[in-house]
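Follow-up to my post from last week.
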Amino acid sequence: MSPRLAKALINGFLIGGAVIALFPLLWMVSASFMQPGEASALPPPLWSAHATMRNYQELFLRAGMGRYLLNSLLVSTAITVLSLVFNLMAGYAFAKLRFAGRDRLFKVLLGMLIIPAQVAMLPLFLMLKYMGLVNSYGGVIVPAMATAFGTFLVRQYARGIPDELMEAARIDGASELRIFVRIVMPLLKPIMVTLAIFTFLTAWNDFMWPLIVLTGQEHYTLPLGLASLSREHAQDSELMMAGSVITVLPVLVLFLALQRYYLEGLLLGSVKG
Amino acid sequence: MNRTRAAWLFLAPALLILGVFFLLPVLAAFGLSLTDYDLYALADIHNLRFIALQNYWTLLQRREFWSALGHTLYFVIVGVPLSMAASLGAALLLNSPLARCKAFFRTALFAPVVTTVVAVAVVWRYLFNTKYGLVNDTLGLMGIHPVDWLGNPHWAMPAIILFAVWKNFGYNMIIFLAGLQAVPGDLYEAARIDGASAWQQFRHITLPMLGPTLWMVAIITVSGYFQLFAEPYVMTEGGPLQSTTSVLYLMYNEGFKWWNIGSASAIAFLLFAILFAVTMLMLRMGRRGGSV
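User reply:
Got it. Predicted complex:
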């Protein structure tokens, strides 16, 4: 095969792949600006002849999308901040502090990585019901405030911190908390950013657990609101596309802005096997 | 402050949360699966009875369970290889020295991964629409008759698999790409001097060098695909004719629709047991192949 042909083929396939990957997303954006019924014309148009913001207005004014958006922001931000703090503390302790039973405890943590979260869901629901957390933001936030995976990730990263740094501070009489805040945390910054994006995206996109624990619409996150709208308004494709745009856009923008950290974290996380 | 005490203080919040909200429920799930916890027990705990392995026994005799397991296996057995092939293909293209604008293509191919399943499932439901959907429109250009993707029990699962491959292939693509970049270039150099074709280079250098990564990715992907739920929930509601009801969907219906919590816990545990067995089997196969 001539190098020119090979080059054309390879780049051709890449363009084809990119079209397949992006087309549904672009069509979603385009259809969200269409008039009601316009997307169901034959043949289906690629863009609107009379673009309108009406679907977005409808979603925010009548369908309560603003509420879902705020709920999603609140829940995902709370989970990200809290789990970041707790995973950092635990990961650091596993990596750098000495205590009896550390290795055994770490093995338990590794074991937890292979248990699918859904196994815990039924008893967790009953437990939260007795605690009065069903159908509250707490029901989604509290169980996600620490993860075995996040702790594991921080531990792997923190092992690279030289012990001398902490020892020197201890000799100077610094408390353990001060050492953690002043010396360790700045060194963990890259993994903090990575873990934060990962956690935020996971919390934002999560569906099954919020679906179970949030029983009333007032607490719905965007995926739940969208799923319930799509059962009521299955025929209003333009409206549903606008809802999908609102759900996907924040995470897509976040990813594009912090892509490097996200992809690094993905590779770090994948060596867990 | 004593250093051991400091360690436990740092660990306490995470351990407390993981213990109370994860480990304890997992153990309790096994306990619940041995009871007949249902709507009556939910109302008054005194209605709860211990029934040993009865739930498991009943499940193994229920057609719904076997068909849900069958659908899940269908999704895993067809979906995982397709998904991995797409990931590997895309990674090979991106890794080629002839490829242009690599950063753009990488981002474009990865974009579906970060999107919300529910939102893009809604989009694909319209793309799969028999009449107005652009999937049939495109197939029509090639002279293929319209397919009733989501309304026909034979086509609903393939449609969900296509959607899942589109949504997920970018993830493993990034891992494969890193694996490919770690293959020393002089291996290919030497093979070229010996006159090896592109296919021979792929077969005898790329694949063996990628071996451990392939196994690891396969194990993680299989365990992810076994947890199929949101896709059928949004696209088909488990239908038509239950053809896309997965094991987790059955657990969800059993537990949170009919409130048969004991029986639903048994489903969750059976899924876990199957997943565990499959993972162990794959690990062993990978080890025997000398790659994990």
